[in-house]
Amino acid sequence: MAAKENVIKRRYKRIDSTFDLHSTDSTAIEEKLFGQTEEDEDSRAADDGLVVFICGKCKLPVGDSLSWDGSEDDENQIRLKRVTENVLVGKDTRLHEPTKRSLCLIVDLICRGCQSLLGMVYTSTPRSMDHKRFTFCFNVADIDSYVLGSARQMLAAEGPKEQPVTLEYRGIVEQQLSEMKMLVVSMAQRLEDIEAGLQEGCDEA
Question: Which residues belong to any copy of the Mis18 domain (predicted)?
Fold first, then answer.
């Protein structure tokens, strides 16, 4: 009996060491159970780049991937938790039946800029579609998207291409300056000789 109690105590001790009272926050539990944390997921999302969703007609931004809630491939829709002020939520509720025996109540999502229909918000759904309720469902055909930081093209710098200053380049420049200096001195000497000759001619006359 004593041996059995010792085994049970050792077993509970191992469990307590897994979820210690000093570290029973969600981050620690995620690390122990799944080997990754929410920060790791955020860093991977940042590496992938932020996606901005825009109206397919007037190109006003309507949301971004930070509000991503999922996608519906069968209906060609994406779901966002939040949208920009460029999205208007309709006031009139209407019936919508995406599949047989799944009658829903929805309101339309309308672009503020061009009044285009962008999608819908489910206000009442069957139990199997509860995950769609009160999320912003956009029709993929009515929106476009782009990834921030995806631009790669740059304009070439205007003017001559600058050459790095090296000892060899500096020597060449100094040699050219010396040659130009000698040429200027030579031309100045010739001008003096010409002026002297002209002066002598004037004196003889």
Answer: 50-148
